[in-house]
Amino acid sequence: MKYNAVITYHRENADALKDFKMLEGQIAFSPQNNNMIIYFNDYDSDYKKREAVLKYVKEHAKELAALNGRWKTCRIDDEWILLGASGNEKAVYCFWTTYNLMMRPVKNWKLPGDSYFCFVSQDGKLYSDVKNEELSTLSYDGDLSSYYFGGDRNKYLISGVETSIGNFRLMNVVERKACLGIFPQMQILGILVLIFVLFAGIPCIIHILNKSVFNPVDRMESGIREVEGGNLTAQIENLKSSREMEHLIQSFNEMILQVRDMKIQTYEESLERQKLELDYLNLQIEPHFYLNALNVINVTAQVGDTKLIYQMTKNLSQYMRYLMGSRKELVTLQEEIEHVGHYLNIMEIRLGENFSYKEQIEENLLTLKIPPLMIQTLVENSVKYAFDVYKESIIEVHVERKGTCCHICVMDNGDGYPKEYLERFNNNFEPEGNHIGIMNLRSRLHMIFGEKASIRIFNREPQGACTEIIISADNVQSCRSDRDV
What we know:
49% helix
């Protein structure tokens, strides 16, 4: 039976793990009976390193189970290893990779010759290899709210980003000379020309050069240094000079204004999008859900029901595969409905006969593009607040087109939304307490579709709650066009 369970686990998870290119492998370990199921991708880690990782997981199973889906950096076999895990005293499920493996995509980026990336700890300790000894001596523990300078004579400009789901940073190092470009060389060239003209005894040319070249170049260099110092409001005074320099200064001033506006807009949008996506992903990564699923598998394994173990692991692996790949901005309605089906299959196994699910979906809307995890958030919300062990709990999903809009409704037969929450939602107050996922979903819909999508919540008669998402027909039409092609 143990052998069949291992074969089934490998068959169900092998293809899913290959989709995660930055993972070395996955491990499922039971501290109670010391059983372990493992799978490795075909990367460059040798047998000795893999054995060291397996040994570490066995010896630190309790510590890894407490991570609850977060990532931890560990020193294993003289190399920094990144471990992500979740579990309990009965079972631990974890992934692992190396920082050097995560640096592989960076090597394919088109970067300036003097730009480098590396992974470091929160206190600046290097986790990945660097190009030379000089880079390894830089200080990487600076304030990441802005960039800073480091190295001999502040040779390098350093910036980075710190993850909120682990204890590491991704740092970028650029030589300052790469920021200035060719302007120092232009100044040197101008000096040489000036010396030549001076020895030739033509003072008028000196005057022309000062007016047409040196002064504009100095002003440009001064402006560049201001921009380098973070002043994106800097403007170069465009005094009368050569036509080319006037055009260059004017273009520089316009470029700085555009860069400032684009940087502010892009940075704010990026932060907002990343925050919403991270909040949304964090809402889906519920340790209790995985722990309960592992407990069901553990109990089922003890009674020897391999068929139910197969169903549970199959649905759980498909659920996690979709969840970990939900960084796409849009997915089809069919993909989302299939994912919801995997989730509800797991819940039916857990909750028993008092739980049922109905769906009514127009077939021609299956290619509709929606944000990932949109319907699952609503279904999970209904399961969480509408399920009652003393009566049958019913969840329904309806998708239909009405006029120029597509309507997606998730309904249940629970107690409905509290009156206070309905008032907060309708008045666009900041989310707090329960149902925070629906608040975040509304923000995501507005960011992706703008005014072409809306969400409303209300209570049904005689009981139950309903959440309805309305998307403009423009998005439906675009999906039909894609399908026709």
